Prior knowledge:
The complex is a heterodimer. Chain A is an alpha/beta fold. Helix content of chain A is 52%, strand content 17%. A 5-stranded parallel β-sheet of chain A has the order 2-1-3-4-5, with helices on both faces. Chain B is an alpha+beta fold. The two termini of chain B are 55 Å apart.
Amino acid sequence: MAITVLLVDDERTFVETLSKRLALRRLQVLTAFSAAEALRVLAERAVDVVVLDVRMPDMDGIATTRAIRETYPLVEVILLTGHASLEASLEGMSLGAFDYLLKPVAIDELMFKIEDAHQKKTLQEDKIRRLAEQAGTTGPGPE
Amino acid sequence: MLGERVLGWWRRRRRTPAAGEPGTLFAARYHSLRLLLAANNRALELMAELERAAGGGGEPFGMAFVRSHCTALSVAVYQMVRHLDELAPGRYRDLFAHLRDMQEHIRAALELPGPDTAGQRLTLPLDEIDGRAAAAVGTKMANLGEARNALGLETPPGFAITARAFQLLLEHNQLSADLASLIQSSEQERPDELFALSSRLQQLIISADVPPAVADEVARRQAELAPSPGSVAPRLAVRSSALGEDSVHASFAGQYRSELNVRPEHLLTAYLEVAASTYTPQAMHYRLQRGLRDEDTLMAVGCLAMVDARCGGVAYTSNPADPSDRRVFVNAVWGLPRAVVDGSAPSDLFVLGRDDGHAVLDRRVVGKPTALACDPGEGVVRRPVPDELAEASSLDDHSAHRVAAMALTLEAHFGCPQDVEWAFTDDGRLLLLQCRPLRQGAAAEEIPESVAPGTALLRGEVCASPGAAAGPVHLLRRDSDALAFPEGGVLVLEHPLPRWAALLGRTAAVIAGEGAIAGHLATVAREFGVPALFGVKGLDRLRQGMEVTVDADGRAVYEGRIPGLVAAASPRSPHLMGTPVHTALTTALTHISPLRLLDPDGPDFKPRHCRTLHDVTRFCHEQAVREMFSFARRHPFPRHASKQLYHEVPMQWWVLDLDDGFAHEVPGPYVRLDDITSRPMLALWEGMTAIPWEGPPAMTGRGFASVLFEATANPALATPFRSPYAQRNYFMISSSFMNLQSRFGFHFSTVEALVGERDPENYLSFSFKGGAADLERRRARVGLLADVLEGQGFSVKVIEDAATARISAMSAEAMESRLRVVGYLVMHTRQLDMVMADPAAVRRYRDKLLADIRRVA
């Protein structure tokens, strides 16, 4: 089953090139060129991992990370940016971003991160599902 | 949607066991551990790169390198803390706060504010500028203002647009973050990338809006230059005058842009073009080489009324190639002096004495068929010179005297030899256009006969990098020797490997047994101006710490310091030590690399004692492994209970499966090698059992089988490890991971490895300590092991009788080969310290070790 990745960056050529390269690695790739567009895509499609730029004109990546993690807590966010800032990286990580990668990034490295983030999401989903099932069988039951 | 239905079906099919069941729990925990280990590996590599950079060798680096490495490192360490928190929820949560403090310190070191321009005016008329205005108008304009106002020399009228205005320009257009981001995202060291990057950065500035406040001020100053109120403002020369440019410490000669003969209505465009030249490729390269920060380079700009010169040129108050030659050198051409400055056309040369008469001592008049002049449209144009002038001298003796006198006045005032740009107008006025300290290179001097000593201690074959230098010998036999390398030492090594370039910033000279002039180390030595002599036989005659003089040009090494030789050598080219970038890095490193948490069983091994990022990585790694172990011990699920290894007989080794280290469910108390899928464990085991133990006889006298069988702690012996697993030899495994804590008698070792399909994440770390002999012999044993491991490509750190060897980012096959070597060493060096006192025996064992390793690897 292909991992579904959403690439968000206002640099169109960057998104388009990366999208092609990730598709070659059998990922299902969605793209968005602004934070608002990214949130629209997330509302419509099941996404596993979002790869997000930290600096965008409409909403910065940190605020976008917060919005994504609040609404879709299981979706993993990888920040990928040219912005080497200790402050932004810490903020992003403490909001629950899976990683903060600096451009230029090797495509292999990005693939590994996407796979790891996806595996984390899968493990998390399994855990939640089984906890729910357990609660259903051994819990107090419906009120 | 079909896709969704398939997805749902697939997810239902791929059901995993309940959260309360060991499968999910172990899989999730193991995933956290694996991510922690990968982050640890990355953090250690980033730290090593930062330390190498700070060591002063290798490629020059800028703030983009320092920031990106520190950011990536900080993220990796944060991930370790997070994953440890997943393994032991809440138990080490303090670490987040400690980490935040450290990161705050690092951030402060990296974000030292640039020059303070608050309170500066946006423009300053030249009449109000003197030397004290350098922080606002740049050194070039400050010197010119000083010459005009303090010395009364004539210059064109004009004004400066200050550093403050440049900062406003960046702020108004929110350029700083975009510029930094572009620089960060490209690989500046590749020339093609540098040029593309430079063009994008300059484009950003050229297309920016000049802030209205700046534009208004500039228009007002421009109007003041008009000959009468309301008349047309003059054409201008618009010149770069960056902060720090033309100072004694950095010339930036020819790196920025100047625009000549700019029409008044185009001034702001020219201003943006000159401002953009902050990012010419040569300026960026120069800052990188000199360790200067972009944020300290604020571009002030000088705007001077254009002088349509009859003739002009450049005067030097000393010989640039020979500081001892104090005559005055005047170059001159017809028309604008730019032709001399950029060396694009032949010029007349006058050499004058510095005494009162400034006698013309030498005169060389050349043909000057063309000259630069102001174009009636805009800019400058190359024009043919009428024949009768082309062959004539562009300067008469009297005018040459005037130029020399002006240059010497400037030298006297500024206190150092000067490089002066001047012009004569048609009506015979001499104008000063620019002055700056003269850049002088050292001349290669002949070595006096009496200095060249008779008997060389050693002779070499290859002068890999010219020059001569003296210093104490430092023998480099393994990586750990590099740690103690003294500033100004003479580096002595057999093989001039490229990685030793990391020491060249601190090195007086290099002596190597082998090597060629084309080697990487030789190249870097030349770049750094470090003399290097290769192909030197008889290195064993050099003793640690003895003072020697290396004469690379003469291909000889002499005992002692020979001042004549050393003095005759050319001085070192500058390197990064002490530059702003280097200082930022070393300050940040004080919160990054020192490791204080050394003893995992000591009372200080606690989050609150973590002072550096290195401490945090050490703590997280150790604690994560322990948490995995104790979790498995606390949850005796049949599948994950520790099993005793059964190989013909039950062995004294236990195996704990963290995730998928067994091929299938293993019932009962024993596990066989056939059941094990752990790639690293199988490779290590192969090495452990490849070659039987041949002696010296095991202490018990029972031979190899008994050693393997015994392989345990004697509980009666005091153990330095209070670890929960100290009493047994445990393998913790998954299909791609192994961690072995083992103990043979007095010998303790830890082997940890990740071997999978992702080469960059693979690593093998091997720590060993202890022994039954006295400290001296234990140290010698560790030294021998370190040697052997370094031969296999490990980097090894030795402290007392303990060592840690690490190798990473290799293919799975290469990692397995190293694991076999380590497996062999774990088994076969345990009693080496018994023989370490006997050099002949040591040699014998060393030879046997090396021969065995060739078979095993």
